[in-house]
Structure formats: structure tokens, C-alpha cells
Write a structure and sequence with these properties.
heterodimer, A: about 210 residues, about 0% strand, B: about 280 residues, alpha/beta, Rossmann fold, six-stranded mixed β-sheet, four-stranded antiparallel β-sheet, 11 helices, 14 strands, elongated
Chain lengths: ~210, ~280
């Protein structure tokens, strides 16, 4: 499985110049106060991980990976673990950049607030990827792009419709414990959907033919 | 003789194509040439053996073990080349080495690097800069570098020039000097097979239509060249297929000696695998 992670990381490293240009643009935007650094994580990680799926599909890696020992399982496991690793690396980079930008802009930084925001962003990004991966494994990256776009629109519309009928402040009051114990609740809430997503992807991939 | 690969009653149905009761065995220490025209079912059979596609019915045993139940164990000892390029082309041979040494227990980095040197492949160049032949050589190096016991190769020499092809064929011959190792080799370049294959399995339209030793085919099969009058004297049971051209008949026979004893037709050419394929597919009975 480690081999599969290394393969994905090597593919991402091959695009290091593009990534460095992206980071440079983020820094410039951050310095001019045009962007909140915490929003960079979902965008960058989704782009980076989707590119690995695209390369796999374009080069017909999936069929070959099945011929490797425990290939069906390790391919999926490797992709999920590579995702966690990439999320971690990008988060660290963003945190460092945030500190630097705060220092340069001579702003006082609220470290705890920054950390909670980052955890929340990781949680949100993971949720997006949790939904995306089974769809990609089921329909392939090309069809999945359109489906994911459609699902996001439906979700946003659905939530806004429901929001009209529900009293959100009341609901938020009832789940304040999630925010009070954020250091436990956010990681826990991330792990459960991640595990479910992994299991669904694995189930799809075990039966998939190439 | 112990078999390294056994395929029994393999069936797989698609809308417009089906593998029908595929049966063959590959003994230890042997090379089997798997031939047939495009779309005949070679790649589908190989994909079923490797569990890339799921068969509808049938048994596939590799090293005496069920190919699905013991997939992990089996795949440690198989080297594979698929018909399409399969390495992400932004990787380098070094990346492949780092990947594979964490996938195969027996991965031999030294051996892999030796192959890279032998094939003049730069370890740090991205695969996308390689020619088709260089990519094929990288696949061959990867397939051989974990000391597999069985090689399953789909078109391993396509894209290679004659010199590189000869080098690769020699590698396969060296591989087979170990009596515990075998090769299943699917190819369109049948001249390669005449030199190295011990067995020929011929698939057409999803069915195995011939499964014999190469010696049997080369020594016993023949192509009778005759005119219409002579052709009319040949009993249907004494030939497999024939093709009529402008001036003569080409008649594929299974036993040259028996034919010579029975008929007074002296022009019997040796059969090549190309001739065999053309006559078996395009010929009539």
C-alpha cells in the first residue's frame, strides 16, 4: 500500500512548478488582503487529488494496479491515505504562510482561532472528498466531474430550501457541545464519513472491471 | 508435468462478444504463444486470468491456486505486461522503482537498475519523454524485477525494432531456463513465437480453435499448393481449411506424412504461424 501512496506523491511532486506558482499567487493575494488563506485548502487539495485520478485514468493505471499484490484494496487505501497526507502537508504550508502574511502585514494573529478554522476547513474538505471519491470510482473521473458539479448544486439548493423552514439558531444551540469540544468532535466527525467513503469506494472497486 | 496455469471452461459474455468455454493449460518451464486476430479474445482472456475482469463461469488456477481466492499470494509471483501503456507518464523509472519496492516483497532494485542500464533508459527522465519502444522496455524491466515465476505478457514486443525485439526475446529465453518459470505470451508478431514458444494456443471469435505444441505445428502441419483438379481429389476430412487464389489452391493440412502417403501431390510447403492464422481465419472448409 505504501507503494501506491508513493506513486501518488511522486505524481504530485512532478507538478511541483505549477504548485509553487499557485502558492506564490496565494501569497501575493494574502499579502494584499484579497483572500483568506483558509479557503485555499479545499481548492488546492481537490485540484491536486483530482489530477492524480486523471493521470491514473489517462494512463490506464487501474487495470495494471489490479495485477499487483492486493492491488484492488491497496489502490483505494493508498488513494485515501495519500489524500490525508496531502491535506496535512497543504494545511501546514497554509498555516506557515498565514503566519508569515500576518507578520508582514503587521497583524496580530489569533493562533487558536486560526487553528480551529484550519481544522474546520480540513473537515469540510474531507467531506467533499468523501462524497467525490466513491462517485469517481463508480463512474470514472470524466463523468464524475459533471456529476460532482450537479451534486454540489443540488446540495446547495437543498440546504437553502431546508434553511427557509428550519430555525438554525435553535439547532446550533442544541449542538454547542460540538463547538465546545472541537478538538475531539471535529476529528471524530471527519473520521466516520471518511471510513464510510473508503468502504463504499472499496466495494465499488472490488467489483469494477477495466 | 505440473501446470503453472490452468484455465477451465472460462466464459465471459458481453453484448457483442463472448469468451466461450476457454480451456488450456501451461506447464512449468514452458512458453505458450497465445495468438489470434484483433478482437479474437486474447486480451479478454488475459484480463480474466489476472482478475481485471470477472468471468461469468469457469475455473482459473495459477500455481495450483484459485486466481481470486489467493489473488494476493499469486500476484507476488506474476510479472505482467498489458497491451496498453500503464505507467503514469509523468513518473520516472526511479519513481517506478520506489513504488514497486513498496509493493512487491521480492522487488530487486539492483536488477531493475541493471535492466535500465541494459536498455539505455535514463532513471530520472519522465516516461512521457520515452519512445514507444523505450516505454515497452521499461514495462519489461518492471515485469522481470521481482523474480516472478510466471510472466503474462500481452503484446510485449510491439513497438520494438528488430534488434530490441531480439534482445527481449533473449531475455525471455533466459527467464525460462529456470524450470519453475513459465510465460504466457500474446502477440501479433508470430515469427517471435516460432523461435521460442513450446505451445501455441489459437483463439478466434472467443473460442480456442487450436492448442498444440509448436513442434507439432511446424513439423506436421503443411500447406498443399495445388490446382483445382488436384484439390477436387482431396477428401474434406483430410484438410482443415483452404483458400483459393487466382492460379492455385492453398490447403492447410494437419499431417504432412499421412497426406503424402495418401495423395500424389508433392508440393507441400512448411507452415508458418502467420500462414496458419490466415488460413484458419480466412480459409473455408
Amino acid at each position: 500500500m505504501l507503494g501506491f501512496i508513493k506513486k501518488d506523491i511522486a505524481m504530485i511532486k512532478s507538478n511541483k512548478i505549477t504548485l509553487l506558482i499557485l502558492i506564490f499567487i496565494y501569497v501575493l493575494m494574502g499579502l494584499s488582503n484579497q483572500i483568506d488563506m483558509s479557503f485555499i485548502l479545499p481548492f488546492t487539495s481537490v485540484v491536486v487529488m483530482l489530477s492524480t485520478f486523471s493521470y491514473d485514468t489517462y494512463n490506464k493505471w487501474d487495470a495494471y494496479s489490479i495485477t499487483l499484490p492486493d492491488g484492488r484494496k491497496n489502490n483505494i487505501k493508498g488513494k485515501y491515505l495519500a489524500t490525508l497526507l496531502i491535506l496535512f502537508i497543504i494545511s501546514v504550508i497554509i498555516l506557515i504562510l498565514s503566519f508569515i502574511i500576518s507578520y508582514v502585514n503587521a497583524k496580530t494573529m489569533n493562533y487558536e482561532q486560526n487553528f480551529i478554522t484550519m481544522l474546520g476547513t480540513i473537515f469540510g474538505t474531507l467531506l467533499v472528498l468523501d462524497v467525490m471519491y466513491p462517485i469517481i470510482y463508480k463512474f470514472g473521473i470524466e463523468k464524475a466531474r459533471i456529476l460532482i458539479f450537479a451534486i454540489v448544486i443540488v446540495l446547495v439548493m437543498g440546504i437553502s430550501i431546508i434553511a427557509n423552514y428550519l430555525d438554525f439558531s435553535n439547532i446550533l444551540n442544541k449542538i454547542t457541545f460540538i463547538f465546545n469540544y472541537w478538538y475531539i468532535s471535529i476529528p471524530l466527525l471527519s473520521i466516520i464519513p471518511l471510513y464510510l467513503s473508503y468502504k463504499i469506494s472499496l466495494h465499488i472497486y472490488r467489483h469494477k472491471e477495466f | 508435468m505440473e501446470n503453472i496455469l490452468e484455465v477451465k471452461n472460462l466464459n465471459k459474455h458481453y453484448d457483442k462478444f463472448a469468451l466461450k468455454n476457454i480451456n488450456f493449460t501451461l506447464p512449468k518451464g514452458a512458453i505458450m504463444g497465445f495468438i489470434g486476430e484483433n478482437g479474437a479474445g486474447k486480451t479478454t482472456t488475459i484480463k480474466a486470468i489476472l482478475d481485471i475482469i470477472k468471468s461469468d463461469s469457469g475455473d482459473i488456477k495459477i500455481f495450483g491456486l484459485d486466481n481470486q481466492q489467493y489473488a494476493k499470494q499469486i500476484k507476488e509471483d506474476i510479472g505482467v505486461i498489458l497491451d496498453d501503456m500503464f505507467f503514469p507518464e509523468i513518473l520516472t523509472p526511479n519513481d517506478i522503482n520506489n513504488t514497486m519496492k513498496n509493493i512487491y516483497h521480492n522487488w530487486d532494485s539492483q536488477m531493475f537498475n541493471n535492466y535500465l542500464t541494459e536498455f539505455s533508459l535514463s532513471p530520472n527522465k519522465q516516461i512521457k519523454t520515452f519512445s514507444k519502444g523505450m516505454r515497452k522496455k521499461l514495462e519489461i524491466a518492471t515485469a522481470l524485477s521481482h523474480h516472478p515465476k510466471l510472466l503474462i505478457l500481452d503484446e510485449p514486443t510491439s513497438g520494438l525494432d528488430p534488434i530490441a525485439r531480439a534482445e527481449v526475446i533473449e531475455l525471455f529465453q533466459n527467464f525460462i531456463t529456470n524450470p519453475d518459470c513459465s510465460i504466457l505470451l500474446s502477440t501479433h508478431i508470430t515469427t517471435d513465437l516460432e523461435h521460442i514458444a513450446d505451445y501455441i494456443t489459437f483463439i478466434n471469435d472467443g473460442e480456442i480453435i487450436l492448442n498444440k505444441t509448436t513442434d507439432e505445428i511446424i513439423n506436421n502441419f503443411g500447406i498443399v499448393k495445388c490446382n483445382e483438379e488436384e484439390f477436387k481429389t482431396i477428401a474434406k476430412k483430410d484438410y482443415l481449411k483452404y483458400q483459393k487464389s487466382k492460379y492455385q489452391y492453398s490447403v492447410l493440412i494437419e499431417n504432412k506424412q499421412a497426406f503424402k502417403n495418401k495423395y500424389n501431390i508433392t508440393t507441400i510447403d512448411k507452415v508458418t504461424l502467420d500462414d496458419l492464422m490466415v488460413l484458419m481465419i480466412k480459409g473455408v472448409k
